[in-house]
Amino acid sequence: MAIHIAEGHCFHCGLPNLEAERYSVVIKQHSYSMCCPGCHAVASSIVENGLESYYEFRTEPAARGDSALDNTMAKLAVYDEPELQEEFVFDSGAHKEIQLTVEGITCAACGWLIEKQLAKVAGIKQVSVNVGARRASIIWDNSEIKLSQVLQKLKSIGYESLPFQADNHEASYHKEQKSFLKKVGLSGIMTMQVMMLAMGQYFDLFGNIDAETTRYFNWISLVLTTPVVLYSGSVFYLSALKALVAKTVNMDIPVTIAILATYVAGFFTVNNEKAEVYFESICMFVFFLLISRFLEHRSRHKATQISSNMLKHIPVTANRVEGDALVSVLAKQLRVDDIVLVKTGETIPVDGLITDGNGRIDEAMLTGEFEPVYKTQGQHVFGGTINQHGVITVKVTNTLKHAMVNQILRLQQTALSNKPRVAQVADRLSRYFVVAVLSISALTYSFWTLQGNPHAFWITISVLVATCPCALGLATPSALTCSMAKLNNQGILLKRADALEQLTEVSDIIFDKTGTLTHGEFSIQKTWYSEQLTKNRCEELLSIASSIEKRSEHPIANAFKDITPCAKTIESVDIRIGMGISTRIDDNVYHLGSASFVLTELSENLPELTPDAINGANVLLSENGKLVAAFWITDEIKQEAAEVLSKLDQFTLGILSGDTTVNVANIAKQLGIEVQNAEQSPNDKLAHIQRLQANGRKILMLGDGINDAPVLAASDVSIAVGNASDLAKNAADVILLKPQIDGVVDLLDMALRTKKKIKQNIAWALGYNILVLPFAMIGLLTPWMAALGMSLSSIIVVYNSTRLMRSKNLKISVNAYMPQGIGES
Q: Fewer beta carbons under 10 A from the terminal one: N or C of the chain?
């Protein structure tokens, strides 16, 4: 080894080792002791990366590592406590999920770096980073790795992280914004000062300047430029260093090279009055680049603010009913089955069910509709909505952690993390482009040096600055973030962003009937009973049907909700999703459901029953193998359905329903839909979609019931409408938070615009870089001109993306939605 370390001292830093052999590292097949966790961590990292030779050739001991590493881990260990995790960790059984606010994310490469590094860690099952919102969603196996270790791993690669909480996240944003303003302000002030000195020399404003004065001006410029380089530009160096540590490249590497190379060159030629120094170019470059980053920072925050600030609608306290008294408690302390009182003008604290009273509820924060919704006993209300009129008591059904607003935030985070193919291509392209820029810069320097050009170095710097692919890195995330924010504001929630791209390829739109095209508010229009039954017996069967239907979640069961159920005990319930229910009551076996389900269960033929007797009935009831009753259940078409379908006439429209042929044909006729499939079981629906896909069709499916879940999952893109079942929401790619289906038109419009904006951004970023590259290579662009052009390019890309948030709906283009290889419908 090159130096001698005294016995009993730390092998890494040379300081006295009070920990004996507690921290030891094997280097070159020998074990050496370290004095603290920090030195142990640094030495281990050196060994793991194959750099043990450092210890052979060093001439001095290294600086001491982070001796407070144990304290750091101790502080992070508190996040492993179950009581603390209760507030922000979502436990799905096998795995746990958390959203983290991550500080220090500056560009798409940061997100890529975090995902790649954490994906290597045992126990971490999934990592997705939303660069725009500065958040990371992590799913891990708690039996393999603890949350504190996940946070420590992030810290080790240079990113501070904490569990996402709206207030803390907002504070983190303002902290970063303040830091940006300081850096921008310093670089701006220094740029003005350095430019005055430089312009004076360039245009000889001070008369004939002697050599001593020139050197003096150069030294003043160096002093003024140094804090810009060391402080304002530090954000670029840290980002570049993180990329190099991860053995990759990002757009801040050429930026760092350009800044430091220009500064070092100027430093060594500051006394040479004939040599060129570009201190003003350094300051301008840093200033312009920081301005574009700052504007990007603000636009990303504005785009995510719509959903992130939804939690601010939740009141801090709530009035919990305890006996005859009202007790003011924290909203986050409310538990399932608690009863809260909400007065006129108050905000509903959590999701729940109205148990008493009625009110007009403003749900604009969820649906985008500002018309209040009248709600009464038995209906659901959501935390953050406002009770504009009336007094209601609400039974809590979800704690604050599982409330609708939190579900929206989690779903949006997941959606932004799932990038469409065009976004993934842009990310890869930006990394390749950085390598190309570095290679072209090296070739440019070599060529001009061989030509004997004294400005070879400055021409190379101009190439590095002018072709910095910052705008390319912003092209896709800025557009996706803005489009998601716009849709969220309209009550449309995407669970995956790549659905936007798939929507532009759709050829067929298939609708479920009940609850999608119709209101799902059913009523019994007609009944039929076996002729042998008495009036009292008929009334009893109706009560039995009501009791059975209360076990169903299908919307059609609501037709029986006002009928008094029978007092008899139901002994067993067998639910066939999308078909019907089998039960046993007082040793009698009943089947209630669709005609295809009930008739196949009958144990005998019914010669006295003519085929027309139950024609059109969509709910049948059998008792002990005999048909005893039939019900004709009807529903009303949604008011906006006809107008929406008229705007979608460029697609092949169809109905896929489990209802009777008569009812489906009636709805299809009123709406002008030619393709219709009735009396479809969940398996039939799935098979129909798969047949269409086998023929090259791209399917968009809209549904709301449990029986729609399989077909929603199988479709290319799926939408859960309005008050859909939890199973349907789980299977769907998009959720409409309001029951109207006019959001489909807005969604398809936004999908087209988003894809168009991404292509525009990429075309502009690549086009600009390709256009200015020849001018930079032949020396026509000075470094400060290159800096100005590069920054303007980034600002244009961000501005173009933000137009998505202000744009109005456009008419959907038929040609834009005509997939390749598919003829006109």
A: N
How far is C-alpha 543 from the geometric centre of its chain's CA atoms?
Answer: 47
Q: Which of 497, 495, 505, 415 is nearest to 693 (CA)?
A: 505
Residue 745 and residue 719: Cα distance in Å, rounded? Answer: 12
Contact 768, 789 (CB under 8 A): yes
Per-residue pLDDT at 395: 92
Residue type, 815: N
Q: Which of 64-68, 87-91, 653-657 has the lowest mean pLDDT?
A: 64-68
pLDDT beyond 80 at 675: yes
The answer on 433 and 392 residing in a single domain is no
- In this structure, the answer to whether residues 530 and 652 fall within a common structural domain is no
- Residue 821 within a domain: no
Token readout for 766 is: 């690549």
Please enumerate, as own/partner, the contacts of 82-91 that have beta carbons within 8 Å and a separation of 24 or more.
85/147, 86/401, 87/163, 87/165, 87/332, 87/401, 88/163, 88/164, 88/165, 88/401, 89/147, 89/163, 90/401, 90/410
Q: Based on the domain organization, do 289 and 420 belong to the same domain? A: yes
Among 164, 198, 222, the domain-final residue is 164
Could you count the other beta carbons within 10 Å of the beta carbon of residue 562?
Answer: 9
The total number of structural domains in the chain stands at: 6
Q: Determine the residue type at 479.
A: A
Q: Which of 590, 606, 634 is the last residue of a domain?
A: 634
Both 527 and 515 in one domain: the answer is no
CATH number at residue 354: 2.70.150.10
Whole-number pLDDT of residue 11: 83
Higher pLDDT, 267 or 160: 267
Query: 302 and 193: one domain?
Result: yes
Domain carrying residue 28: 1-67
Taking the whole predicted model, whether its pTM rises above 0.70 is answered as no
Spatial distance between the Cα atoms of 708 and 443, rounded to a whole number of angstroms? 60
Domain check: are 768 and 735 in the same one? no
Residue 388 and residue 418 in one domain: no
Nearest to 360 by CA among 349, 338, 375, 370: 375
823 found inside a domain: no
Nearest residue to 366 (alpha-carbon basis) of 388, 387, 392, 384: 384
- The answer to whether residue 819 sits within a structural domain is no
Q: What residues does 743 pair with on adjacent strands?
A: none
Q: Are residues 47 and 94 in the same domain?
A: no
Q: What is the pLDDT of residues 469-489, one digit of tens each?
A: 666 766 776 777 778 778 877
Nearest CA-CA partner of 263 in 275, 277, 284:
277
Q: What 8-state DSSP symbol labels residue 139?
A: E
Instruction: Kindly give the residue spans of alpha helices, DSSP state H, lying in 418-466.
Output: 421-450, 456-466
Share of the chain above pLDDT 70, in %: 74
**What's the first-to-final CA gap in the chain, in angstroms?**
78
* Strand 30-34 with 523-529, pairing: unpaired
Contact 783, 458 (CB under 8 A): yes
- Name beta bridge partners: 360: 374, 389
**Rg for the chain, CA atoms, rounded:** 34
15 contacts 22 by C-beta, under 8 angstroms = no
CATH number for the domain including 84? 3.30.70.100
> Cβ-count burial of 565 within 10 angstroms (0-12 exposed, 13-18 middle, 19+ buried)?
middle
Q: Could you read off the pLDDT of 132-149 as tens digits, one per residue?
A: 567 788 888 888 888 888
Query: Is 820 domain-assigned?
Result: no
Query: In which residue are the tokens 């449309």 written?
Result: 492
How many beta carbons lie within 10 A of that of residue 629, not counting itself?
Answer: 23
Q: From CA 458, how far away is CA 436, in angstroms rounded?
A: 19
Residue identified by tokens 């009560």 is: 543
As to burial, measured by CB atoms within 10 angstroms (0-12 exposed, 13-18 middle, 19+ buried), residue 37 is buried
Angle between helices 421-450 and 456-466 (to 10 degrees): 170
